[in-house]
Amino acid sequence: MNHAPARPKKSFGQHFLHDRRYIDDIVRAIAPRTGDFLVEIGPGEGALTMPLLAVARSLTAIELDTDLIPALKDRAAGVGELAVIHADVLKVDFAALAHRHGVARLRIAGNLPYYISSPILFHCVEYAAAIEDMHFMLQKEVVERMAAEPGSKVYGRLSVMLQLACRVVPLFEVPPQAFRPPPKVDSAVVRLIPLAPHERHDADPELLHAVVKAAFGQRRKTLGNALRQLLDADAIRSADVDPRVRAETLAPEDFVRLAKRLAKRLAAR
């Protein structure tokens, strides 16, 4: 059945990729393999879905917009086995999804809605142990923040939390004209490869999140001031961190030591 092009909805932040050159570039970057358990977040009109499905032969798509699902299923007929989960991706348990299908790890891809891209990234990182890799199209500025190094003006909470869980590899940029309608920002594709078990930090995730959030809450403050509700200056020094510096000068591993120091402080109470 032929379907008319979908009308993008502002409420879902929809910008449909249509430029075949960039579609091909993304598919090459993902390099799907027959038998991969692929999960696509926000398939839209299926621009990436169909070429990925043609190789992998099966794919699970997570789509919140019910209006897009019938056309998506029709386009997949004869291409491969497409399963569509109608859900908010922030409520999807990726570990349970992998377990339910008897696979060790998922491969995730998607053109993420830019207005909620950070929450989606943080949600995916929670399930890093169940994920082989992730390829996302995001606002270029977000990709720059994800990959930023200490000392950069855009280095912050997103940089630290993602780099403690994954290798972040920016791949290439995608111009507004590649989408319908064109967004008002440039886009970029990024690859995230979850760290191996021996590379992962062993700090309490909630305490780590609390430390990083507080440290970057007011960027102009020194760590001693920013973290004063969590750790005093002596405790910060005991983690081999100078309380006089600002958060953006610290490496991700420094925050791990601070979180462990906070854990000791709480355990001693």
TrEMBL record:
<keyword id="KW-0949">S-adenosyl-L-methionine</keyword>
<feature type="binding site">
    <location>
        <position position="42"/>
    </location>
    <ligand>
        <name>S-adenosyl-L-methionine</name>
    </ligand>
</feature>
<keyword id="KW-0489">Methyltransferase</keyword>
<keyword id="KW-0694">RNA-binding</keyword>
<protein>
    <recommendedName>
        <fullName>Ribosomal RNA small subunit methyltransferase A</fullName>
        <ecNumber>2.1.1.182</ecNumber>
    </recommendedName>
</protein>
<keyword id="KW-0963">Cytoplasm</keyword>
<feature type="binding site">
    <location>
        <position position="111"/>
    </location>
    <ligand>
        <name>S-adenosyl-L-methionine</name>
    </ligand>
</feature>
<comment type="function">
    <text>Specifically dimethylates two adjacent adenosines (A1518 and A1519) in the loop of a conserved hairpin near the 3'-end of 16S rRNA in the 30S particle. May play a critical role in biogenesis of 30S subunits.</text>
</comment>
<dbReference type="InterPro" id="IPR020598">
    <property type="entry name" value="rRNA_Ade_methylase_Trfase_N"/>
</dbReference>
<dbReference type="InterPro" id="IPR020596">
    <property type="entry name" value="rRNA_Ade_Mease_Trfase_CS"/>
</dbReference>
<dbReference type="InterPro" id="IPR023165">
    <property type="entry name" value="rRNA_Ade_diMease-like_C"/>
</dbReference>
<feature type="binding site">
    <location>
        <position position="15"/>
    </location>
    <ligand>
        <name>S-adenosyl-L-methionine</name>
    </ligand>
</feature>
<keyword id="KW-0808">Transferase</keyword>
<feature type="binding site">
    <location>
        <position position="63"/>
    </location>
    <ligand>
        <name>S-adenosyl-L-methionine</name>
    </ligand>
</feature>
<feature type="domain" description="Ribosomal RNA adenine methylase transferase N-terminal">
    <location>
        <begin position="22"/>
        <end position="196"/>
    </location>
</feature>
<feature type="binding site">
    <location>
        <position position="88"/>
    </location>
    <ligand>
        <name>S-adenosyl-L-methionine</name>
    </ligand>
</feature>
<dbReference type="InterPro" id="IPR011530">
    <property type="entry name" value="rRNA_adenine_dimethylase"/>
</dbReference>
<comment type="similarity">
    <text>Belongs to the class I-like SAM-binding methyltransferase superfamily. rRNA adenine N(6)-methyltransferase family. RsmA subfamily.</text>
</comment>
<dbReference type="GO" id="GO:0052908">
    <property type="term" value="F:16S rRNA (adenine(1518)-N(6)/adenine(1519)-N(6))-dimethyltransferase activity"/>
</dbReference>
<keyword id="KW-0698">rRNA processing</keyword>
<dbReference type="InterPro" id="IPR001737">
    <property type="entry name" value="KsgA/Erm"/>
</dbReference>
<dbReference type="Pfam" id="PF00398">
    <property type="entry name" value="RrnaAD"/>
</dbReference>
<dbReference type="InterPro" id="IPR029063">
    <property type="entry name" value="SAM-dependent_MTases_sf"/>
</dbReference>
<feature type="binding site">
    <location>
        <position position="17"/>
    </location>
    <ligand>
        <name>S-adenosyl-L-methionine</name>
    </ligand>
</feature>
